[in-house]
Amino acid sequence: MAIADLNTEQPLPASSSVSAAGMLGTTDASGRVVYASPQLLHFLGLSLSEVQAQWLSLVHPDDQKRLSEQWKAALAANQIYQVEFRIRRQDGQYRWVWSTGYPQMNDVGIVQQWIISTIDVEVSRQSAGGNTGAEADFSFLAELIPQLVWTTDPTGFHTYFNQRWTDFTGYTLADSVGPDMWNNLLHPDDRQRAREIWGHSLATGEFYEIEYRFKAKDNTYRWFLGQALPVYSSEGQIVKWFGTCTDIHDQKMNELALRKREQDFTTLANAIPQMAWMADEAGSIFWFNDRWFAYTGTSSEHVHNQDWQHVHHPDYAEQVRTKFQTAIRTGEAWEDTFPLRRADGEYRWFLSRALPVLDDAGQIVRWCGTHTDVTEQKQLQDQLERAYSDLEAKVMFRTLDLEREVQELRQRLSS
Fold this sequence. Notes:
Helix content is 39%, strand content 28%. It is of the alpha+beta class.
């Protein structure tokens, strides 16, 4: 069941108590609210659709601009945000709350959603000078999200791991904290690279991201996407790092298998005697095999700039382009014969064919084609056509001669 499926359109009764840790919400990547926990709906006295439509108007007028600016900045930077503001409760009173938002990224680093926790800090703010309870808020979220979660101090010394970390690695929290323990769990081939990238982020404050293999408690390795963001103080100093490890093993295995198939395809394409090429669904060529470059003397830069069209004979280029665009438009297999210029300037004739490659939905995703040198066949065909034309001419002339001789014979016989 998805988080958003848990919502109803009716607010909870105002008489129930609110758990600070349970006031949870999520938004999509653009910041649109898609879920609000029952506790949050009760606190506000609204339904989900009402929260979606008017959440900013619930904020105290003096806090709206500040909150809106911080939220937009977090969305733009894809960074954790923490903010304190007043919001109108279901009884009409404004209460101070502490809100923390965490971006959730996919395996390629693109934010898919935000998890936002909100806690009522009115009492603690009045009695403890603004203690927000952010640690409890963080712990709740860290155990909720499906990643391995960790934090470090500004120097990279690990200070926290969530339960998922313990369950996966088999390490206790006492065994896990420290500056370099985590690196010992990586595959030996990944350790140096991970240490260098992490060291660079610590030195510069830049977003940390890396793919590496992590050892599970059963001594097997799985691929993870490691990511971390710095948390800054009001003075602009890094006070901690918040990091996650997302299991991408299945995607990585699929990616490696696909890469292996692509390598096999490239090897095969370079082994065939034809020039091979691929184009996208719109017909823009993005790849040639080695034989193309050897024949034309061009480079991959010419492919990106579409300069490969210059090797077409100018007398045939427009005809070829028109016929190929018709195939792109109709989705039918393409075939044509035309001359291409060799690196030494000589033109040779090629038979070119291309077939569309379809996805599971039947949509064209690319075109695969070949150029086969048919110069000798073309020359032989031309010779045969000339010989046939010569033969036809000889037959015609001989026929005329016979007709003339017959006419002369008839004239002699009639005289």
